[in-house]
Amino acid sequence: MSERRACVTGAAGFIGSYLCRRLWEDGWHVTALDCCGPEGLELVADLLGRAGFTFVQGDATQGRDVEEAASG
Fold it and tell me: How many C-beta neighbours within 10 Å does residue 25 have?
């Protein structure tokens, strides 16, 4: 995996999931952020658990530290 990193907000939505997939396929480490619950992850379900992809449940307007949330 590359050292290139991206954080995609709204990752479980139509456009966000496409962007996550495209970045991940291009070798980026993707941290995906969305406030949906587990039932809303069908558009990124195939990426969950893969190396280089991390999903963080949260709201971008709350100022969450996604690196800290992804590691803990």
Answer: 11
